[in-house]
Amino acid sequence: MSANPPGRRATQLAVEAAVTVAVAIVLFPFVYIMLTSLKPPNLVAEPDVWWFAPSFANWTDVLLDSDVPFNILNSLIVSTTTVAIALLVGCPAAYSFSRFKSGGPARFVILSAAMIPPAILILPMFLVFYRLGLIDTRTGVVITHLTLVTPVVTWFLVGFFDEVPKELEEQAMIDGWTQFQAFLRVIVPTVRPGIAGAGVFGFVLSWNDLFYALILTGGESRTLPVAIAGFWTFRGIDMGKMAVAILLAILPILVASFFIQKHLIRSLGGGAVKT
Amino acid sequence: MAGASLKNLRKSFGALEILKGIDLTIEPRQFTVLLGPSGCGKSTTLRILAGLESQTSGEIRIGDRDVSTLEPRQRDVAMVFQNYALYPSMTIAENMGFGLKARGIPKKEIRAAVEKAARMLEITELLDRKPRQLSGGQQQRVAIGRAIVRDPNLFLFDEPLSNLDAKLRVEMRTELLRLHRDLGATTVYVTHDQEEAMTMADRIVVMNAGTIEQTGSPEEVYFRPVSLMVAGFVGSPAMNFVRGRAVPGGVDTPVGRFEAPGYGGDGTDVVVGVRPDDLELPDALEPGERGFESAFHVEFVEMLGARGIVTLRHGDTRFKGVFEERHLSRFEEGAAITLCVSRHRLHVFDAASGRRLP
Amino acid sequence: MSLRFRLILPLAVMLTLIMVYPLVFSGWISLHDYRLTRLDDVRFVGANNFTFIFTDPPFWNALTNTLVFVFGAVTIEFVAGLGLALLLKRLIRFENVARAILLAPMFITPIAVGLMFRFLLNSEFGVIPHYLGVFGLSVEWFGPRLALFSLILIDAWQWTPFMILMFLAGLEALPKAPFEAAKVDGAPAWMVFWNLTLPMLRPVITVALIIRGLDAFKVFEYVYAITRGGPGNSTDTILYHIYKTGFRFFRLGEAASIALVLVAITMVLVVALYAAMKRS
Question: Which residues numbered 23-42 in A keep a CB inside 8 Å of some CB on C?
Answer without folding.
Answer: 23, 25-27, 29, 32-33, 36
